[in-house]
């Protein structure tokens, strides 16, 4: 029963932070939506900041795990490993659209929590993606390129649809919460990996001849 | 003198909305920072929502203008036109980093203002980008592809660095407010256009032979 209350609080806060913003949500609102006593929230999370921190942690624990799982394929090649990372993150975000949108919006603010997340989880993310790209370059699978600029573009591609779900629904009429979208969009990012990052067959032939 | 007060109010609100969020900023805070009487703000903008709406309008008026200017190059080819659009938007965002970050964060919320922006400015953006891509496909400059998925990726690439300036500074140690970054990043997006969207020389030759 206690576990359920805690879970209900987290679910309610993700929903309310998302719709009304962190500042626009009170502990009272969360307690009402979660059908718990406000004292329960204080017991588990201290205050609203504690709750937001908890949301960040559950998101990034899983997020980094998905990257690590994709990194596990590195022996099969850098492109395969990077594609696995892309697939894992996309499916994770797809299965957690509300939490994802909340986190992607909040991470753009300059707060104490965000600084801590950056120095831990996002440094790990950078570490793994850099290793994959550097390995790809050494193996001549990938072109010579700056890993940080690739990371930047990759994150732009991965996060855009989940931060901007209203835009997708209202302007593009593409539904980010449909399985069809995720599968198609994963293939689009694969094309980016093949077209921008990989040495093309043409380039490979050119290098071999010269 | 009146013009200066109005401008000072807008500058102060962009700064404060950005740092403390829209909900975390009061009219009092803005008046103090802009060194004006709170009644002045009410006179020009009614209330905080009016101010935010004004920020949206000044951003998107220029944003769509930059797209239209790039679209003006369409007779020289779809890739040239799309690259011009990319260059214009990147430089515009670079010259207005605070305003850009504020808008890119706020646009992810589901509010009345955001819905109005989508049904006007972002529909126009979609219209121009779709026309460029469709023209590129017809002229066999571009591969067969879904314009909406390309728009989605393009926006992800264009906006990522300006929404996530802290991430860039703290994790990647890349400085989005340096001219060097913008020039290099524009070239990276050109590579995406060439590698993902354009028929490569290899493909062209292949098509010609077959």
Q: For the record, what is the CATH homologous superfamily label of the largest domain in chain A? A: Tetracycline Repressor, domain 2
The largest chain-to-chain contact, stated as pair and per-chain residue counts, equals: A-B, 51 and 51 residues
CATH class of the largest domain in chain A: Mainly Alpha
| Quaternary structure classification | homodimer
Strand content of chain A: under 5%
Coarse morphology of chain A: elongated
Helical content of chain A stands at over 70%
Would you identify the CATH architecture of the largest domain in chain A?
Orthogonal Bundle
Q: How many angstroms does the end-to-end distance of chain A come to? A: 70 Å
Tell me the number of structural domains of chain A.
2
Q: Mind describing the biggest β-sheet of chain A?
A: none
For the CA atoms, what is the radius of gyration of chain A?
20 Å
Low-confidence runs of at least 5 consecutive residues of chain A: 205-210
What's the rounded overall pLDDT mean of chain A? 92
Number of helices of chain A: 11
- The strand count of chain A comes to 0
């Amino acid at each position: 029963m206690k576990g359920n209350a805690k879970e209900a609080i987290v679910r309610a806060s993700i929903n309310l932070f998302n719709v009304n913003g962190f500042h626009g949500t009170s502990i009272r609102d969360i307690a009402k939506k979660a059908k718990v006593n406000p004292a329960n929230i204080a017991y588990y999370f201290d205050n609203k900041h504690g709750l937001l921190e908890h949301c960040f942690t559950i998101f990034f624990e899983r997020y980094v795990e998905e990257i690590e799982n994709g990194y596990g394929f590195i022996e099969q090649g850098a492109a395969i490993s990077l594609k696995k990372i892309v697939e894992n993150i996309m499916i994770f975000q797809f299965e957690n659209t509300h939490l994802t949108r909340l986190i992607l919006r909040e991470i753009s603010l300059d707060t104490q929590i965000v600084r801590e997340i950056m120095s831990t989880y996002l440094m790990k993310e950078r570490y793994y993606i850099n290793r994959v790209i550097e390995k790809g370059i050494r193996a001549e699978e990938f072109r010579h390129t700056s890993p940080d600029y690739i990371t930047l573009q990759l994150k732009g591609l991965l996060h855009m649809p989940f931060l901007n779900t209203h835009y997708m629904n209202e302007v593009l009429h593409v539904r980010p919460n449909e399985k069809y979208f995720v599968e198609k969009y994963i293939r689009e990012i694969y094309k980016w990996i093949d077209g921008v990052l990989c040495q093309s067959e043409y380039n490979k032939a050119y290098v071999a001849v010269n």
